[in-house]
Write a structure and sequence with these properties.
Length: about 375
């Protein structure tokens, strides 16, 4: 986190007039009430009304800046003090950001430094939606289908005599005293269905999500969305991959990229089965190295060539080196490492990938080089 604020401080020092520091101009900051922050909008579900965050406001000779924070309080000090402070908690960070907003507003560099009020938030939402649609578009869903998997019990109240046997046998506690089934707690074990003396328990197939076929600006995509508290399954992953293969064959696409689930369970096995190669993207942490070894072992078990890439490697170079050595020991191919770079976050905020956002940057070139190595591995391991 400190790296981001160091970069912000560096850029601010380049932009802000030096006389603002020399004059030791005072900044005053305080937390606003909900009405002060957003007025009286029609909707009542804003986070400022219901959540823990507040708007904090800073003033610099009549110029105002604001920022969200969940740690708020008053402040009275100089702009120089703020820029030299350590933003080590959310209170200090909010003072840091809101004061910079006020300073940039004071200089005329920035205009939008305060939150919209009254009916403006609703108008802003409409404008934002139109902007996103016009600039980036959205995946156009061409097909939407229910995904059914497993079964959930339901009790027919007309047949049920409330003998209590189902409640006694249900080890999950999914059946209430009023003889209704909690669909989240029910594990679909079928015990109640088989032992009910009145055949009052039904066991319909469970609709646990949806899967989609969409068009995106990068080409067709098959994806899925699970319902609340529904678990991912190998069946769903296999379905998505099967539909992807059909789509690729129909459209003469020669490459399918599957974004696999973490871990080594059924969804991961379903993700890598029959693949040409597996690309493991890890990070230089203890858990990252551990999970990478498990996936490499799984890929080896299925005789699928594996490659490894380290994301944010420079946050822990010693651990990154250890991961590279493990990769070699496991007979996997180490194809590169990506440094931590704020450009990735900036690109994400703009709804773009790093190649679109800043194609000439070091970050984009690093990703391009890694992709070139992936393509070489694909060429060396054609599908049989």
């Amino acid at each position: 986190m400190s790296n981001i604020y160091d970069e912000i401080r560096k850029r601010a020092l380049d932009i802000i007039d030096k006389d603002l520091f020399d004059r030791n101009m005072k900044i005053k900051a305080r937390a606003l009430t909900t009405e002060e922050a957003i007025g009286n909008p029609e909707a009542d579900d804003f986070l400022l009304m219901k959540g823990k965050e507040r708007l904090i406001q800073a003033e610099l000779e009549g110029s105002v800046g604001q920022a969200f924070t969940d740690q708020y309080g008053d402040f009275d000090g100089s702009l120089k003090d703020i820029l030299e402070s350590d933003p080590s908690n959310n209170y200090r960070r909010s003072i840091f950001i809101t004061s910079l907003n006020a300073a940039l507003r004071h200089m005329g560099v920035k205009e939008g430094t305060i939150h919209c009020r009254d009916q403006e938030p609703a108008e802003c939402a409409v404008q934002l939606g139109k902007h996103i649609l016009s600039e980036y578009g959205i995946p156009k869903i061409k097909k939407e289908t229910d995904f059914k998997s497993g079964h959930k019990a339901s009790i027919d109240k007309e047949k049920c005599i409330e003998c209590g046997l189902c409640r006694e046998l249900c080890r999950w506690g999914a059946i209430s005293e009023g003889y209704t089934v909690d669909s989240i707690e029910c594990e679909g074990c079928v015990v109640c269905f088989h032992f009910c003396p009145e055949n009052a328990i039904n066991f319909p197939e469970n609709t646990c999500g949806k899967w989609f076929i969409s068009d995106t600006r990068f080409g067709p995509m098959v994806h899925a969305k699970l319902g609340v508290a529904e678990e991912n399954s190998g069946k769903l992953v296999s379905l998505v991959r099967s539909e992807s293969k059909k789509l690729a064959e129909q459209g003469s696409h020669d490459l399918i990229i599957t974004d696999g689930a973490p871990g080594v369970g059924c969804p991961v096995i379903a993700s890598i089965g029959g693949a040409n190669v597996v690309l493991v993207v890890t990070e230089p942490t203890v858990s990252g190295a551990h999970d990478m070894e498990r996936v490499l072992k799984l890929a080896s078990h299925f005789s699928i060539p594996a490659m490894v890439c380290i994301n944010k490697f420079d946050l822990n170079k010693d651990k990154a080196r250890e991961i590279e050595l493990i990769t070699q020991e496991k007979n996997a191919v180490f194809i590169g490492q990506i440094p931590f770079n704020n450009l990735f976050t900036e690109a994400m905020v703009q709804g773009k990938n790093i190649i679109e956002y800043d194609p000439g940057s070091d970050a984009a070139n690093t990703v391009k080089q890694i992709w070139d190595r992936v393509k070489i591995s694909l060429f060396e391991n054609p599908k049989q």
